[in-house]
Design brief:
The chain is an alpha/beta fold. The protein is built from eleven helices and ten strands. It is globular and about 65 Å long.
Length: 324
């Protein structure tokens, strides 16, 4: 597996109550330099905007990453942060808005190809609804699927992913769960359409990380992973390993069993923490989970699952992790 981090959330990011943030701002070159010092990254995940910026400028970002021995893992879209998307982007009831979303996404796909990233991720947070009697559900689904088909056909050489999330900023997201995303993949029926699974979104929806990943792997639709942690009630985007030890161990068992060898990106919002150390600890925790699965052995874990014993599972984890 290859490890990267989303850089857009590592600068001086504000929250609802501290819009000015808790840190000093960094220039992008400084961010990369500090991340390199952590000595854990293979790449970085970029965020593309048609309005420009360092992460959207091939002439700037490609030589900067190459000079630091990094590659762009994935590129994220920005179909959520402008007023024109408030009633949706690729599924907007307004045809002109949908066409604009398709056009902007095509620019992002061109950028993805130019920088040599593995794929382009669509987090369509504004596509959904808030109230009853606000949405023609079948039309919304059909418009979204049709938009995706156009984009997949425009760039058949690029992996395009949906990132399911239960809610936020809409109260109900169109692409809310992994199951929904897999249904859309089946309907659109394009080989280059798949999923970026943010495991924190799975936890927020009350789901199980390993199961969601395994179902996407079964369909050969898992193209990318976003890793973080939370308490389950919200998408807290905490340091990996800070909350969910047994579930993360099971997740890395599934990834090893199925031979996943693509990208895992740290996707955290370390508002108050040292952001570079937070990325480092997240990746070191994931590497440790992978090593622990290897140390326990696949046969022993397979037998544990077959035996269905929760107490034996807890014993194995306790003895393996704490050596007591």
């Amino acid at each position: 597996m290859k490890y990267s981090t989303i850089t857009g959330s590592l600068n001086n990011i504000g929250d609802r109550y501290m819009s000015g943030g808790y840190k000093r701002p960094y220039k992008y070159e400084e961010l990369i330099a500090e991340l390199i010092k952590m000595n854990v990254l293979d790449g970085v995940e970029l965020s593309f905007s048609t309005e420009g910026g360092v992460e959207s400028d091939e002439a700037t970002i490609r030589p900067l990453l190459e000079a630091n021995g990094l590659v762009p893992s994935f590129v994220n879209s920005s179909l959520f942060g402008e007023q024109k998307w408030m009633y949706g982007s690729l599924s907007s009831p307004d045809k002109a808005v949908r066409e604009q979303a398709i056009s902007d996404t095509k620019e992002g796909l061109d950028f993805t190809r130019a920088v040599g990233a593995a794929g382009y991720n669509l987090w369509t947070g504004q596509d959904g609804f808030d109230y009853s009697f606000q949405t023609d559900y079948q039309k919304q689904w059909q418009d979204f699927s049709a938009s995706l088909a156009v984009l997949c056909d425009y760039a058949p050489d690029i992996s395009i992913t949906m990132e399911p999330k239960l809610r936020e900023p809409r109260n109900r997201s169109l692409v809310d769960t992994v199951t929904t995303a897999l249904l859309i993949c089946a309907e659109v029926n394009r080989d280059n359409l798949g999923l970026t699974i943010d495991v924190g979104h799975t936890l927020q929806s009350g789901g199980n990380m390993a199961r969601d990943l395994d179902m996407a792997l079964k369909s050969d639709r898992l193209f990318n992973i976003h890793a973080n942690d939370n308490y389950g009630s919200w998408d807290d985007d905490m340091i990996v390993g800070s909350v969910r030890l047994p579930e993360y161990l099971e997740m890395f068992y599934v990834l090893a069993k199925r031979g996943y060898d693509k990208w895992i990106s740290v996707d955290i919002f370390p508002y108050r923490e040292n952001q570079f150390e937070a990325v480092r600890e997240s990746i070191l925790f994931m590497e440790t989970y992978a090593k622990l699965v290897n140390r326990i052995g696949m046969k022993k874990l397979d037998d544990l699952i077959e035996g269905q014993s929760a107490t034996e599972m807890m014993k194995l984890i306790r003895e393996s992790v704490f050596s007591v």
